[in-house]
Amino acid sequence: MSNQSRSLKQLALQKFKKDFRGVFSFIFILLVGIISIFAYVFAPDNSQNANQMHLAIHSKKPGFEVKMLTLPSKTDSNQSFFSRILFGKKNTDTEIPISSFIRDDNQLTYTEYASDGLDGLTKSVNLSEFPDYLMKDLIKHRKFYLGTDKYGRDLLSRILIGARISFFIGFIAVFISLIIGITMGSIAGYFGGKTDAIIMWIINVTWSIPTLLLVIAITLALGKGFWQVFIAVGLTMWVEVARVVRGQIISVKEMQYVTAARALGYNDFRIITKHILPNIMSPIIVISAANFAAAILIESGLSFLGIGAQPPMASWGAMIKDHYNYIILGKPYLAVIPGLCIMSLVVAFMLIGNAMRDAFDVKS
């Protein structure tokens, strides 16, 4: 049995490697995963949630360049290296977009940036108030590769950090749905009878409620927030897994290897976990990929409605909500770019799900 299992896995892997779309989607998803984990390393604005606002340069087009004056803070953030990488820098410095400046010894006179041909305010600052080691790179040339949003935040940084929410909600939601779905489906399919009838009634009732409405109800009950959305999405996606697991167990529980396990005196828990589930994992893997894509769409919809990830957290759905009216104001990229990110990630998971379905299909 084990040799046959290994050979089937190797055959499925070989078939998967021959599917260009599946391999390309896997590489793309892996790349997005790396960017999600180390988003603050790649983001030009590595402050927490990339939330550095510069209202003077709001809604600028991709490729916009400006001089940025950074006035160091006198307070120490006391933040570890790993905290900066994983959660962003606690930025207490003051950043000011400027159009020109003159430095005379310890006096810096600068003109604030003003758009539409207007003249900005001219101000001065005494540099002797700041320690010398904080004066490095006082004025930098900043380029916004994807432009800025309506609050003057770097759009590229918000996109990179927003990938973290969309990516990890898939993992957590699918993990929750697998735990509940496999448990409920295994009990219903293996024991049958009244147990099956009760669990199927619960599944059918949950199935009959529109997914988005159920997620909204759970979110309102748990409260708005980051983790609440993850839990709410996971609690609504287990029914598909339960139905698939139940059907697969019903079809295999009378096979010879299960009968042999019963004859050897193994308990029901061991038979289900050690003998049945490993042999029906193929459809579960495929439906998990589809659920991953569905979780991303649901989270984006919740953020668009304002009950998903809350500001100032970066979320692709929330970015579309903030800028969808810019589509008719001549700057559609502010909403189109996060929309394309959602679409590309969802399509990648659907393609990899189709590739795994074909690879695990023993008839092909």
What is the compact description of this entry?
By secondary structure, the chain is of the alpha+beta class.
The ordered H/E elements are HHHEHEEEEHHHHHHHHHH
Strand content: 5-15%
Global morphology: elongated
CATH fold node name of the largest domain: MetI-like fold
Segments where pLDDT lies below 50 for 5+ residues? none
What is the CATH class designation of the largest domain?
A: Mainly Alpha
Total domains: 2
Helix content: 55-70%
Question: Which radius of gyration do the C-alpha atoms yield?
Answer: 27 Å
Number of helices: 14
Given the helix and strand composition, which structural class is it? Answer: alpha+beta
Arithmetic mean pLDDT: 86
Oligomer: single chain
Largest sheet: 5 strands, antiparallel
Number of strand segments: 5
How are the strands of the largest sheet arranged? Answer: 4-3-2-1-5
Give the full name of the CATH homologous superfamily of the largest domain: MetI-like
- Any guess at the CATH architecture of the largest domain? Orthogonal Bundle
Distance between the termini: 21 Å
Protein name: ABC transporter permease
Organism: Gilvirhabdus luticola
Keywords: Cell membrane, Membrane, Transmembrane, Transmembrane helix, Transport
Pfam families: BPD_transp_1, OppC_N
